[in-house]
Amino acid sequence: MENALDNGKIAVGLRTARAAAGWNQQEFADLMGVAKSTVARIETLEMAARGDFIIKAIRLFRDAGVDMDLSDPEDLPIRISGAGISSAISSLSDQTKRRSDRKSGIASLLPDNDN
């Protein structure tokens, strides 16, 4: 059970940190140098993340202003710096990253948006 709980904590952490960084699965997969299906399978507990994957992901998140602490035995602390929040807002507001049927929404309400 502990291994399943650890894998679940890692999956939740990766998914949450990825979203906090403003990356979709494809963007994160590209940064990690893996297929999108690998990210999806890890995030849905279809496969366990390898140690090198976790270490690289933590470094990428930290560089993006998102700090994830997997060492806490009970909780999963995730801290997002002000720069990380600004970067994520910028990424999430980028209309070129939206599907054609999703060109509006809350992002259009954010300040300094060209809409």
Question: What's this, in brief?
Answer:
The protein has 115 residues and is mostly helical.
Notes on the structure:
With 115 residues, the protein is mainly alpha-helical. It has a single domain, classed as lambda repressor-like DNA-binding domains (434 Repressor (Amino-terminal Domain)). It has five helices and two strands. It has helices at residues 2-21, 25-32, 36-43, 51-63, 82-93, and strands at residues 66-68, 78-80. It has a two-stranded antiparallel sheet. α1 (2-21) packs parallel to α4 (51-63). The longest helix has 20 residues, at 2-21. The radius of gyration is 15 Å and the shape is globular. The mean pLDDT is 86.
State the total count of DSSP E strands.
2
Helical/strand content category: mainly alpha
Distance between the termini: 50 Å
Major β-sheet, in short? 2 strands, antiparallel
CATH topology: 434 Repressor (Amino-terminal Domain)
Range of strand content: 5-15%
Strand and helix order? HHHHEEH
Helix content: 40-55%
General form: globular
Low-confidence stretches: none
Strand order of the largest sheet: 1-2
Q: What is the architecture at the second tier of CATH? A: Orthogonal Bundle
Calculate Rg over CA atoms.
15 Å
Q: What is the highest CATH level, the class?
A: Mainly Alpha
CATH fourth-tier homologous superfamily: lambda repressor-like DNA-binding domains
Q: How many domains, in number, for the residues?
A: 1
What average pLDDT do the residues reach?
86
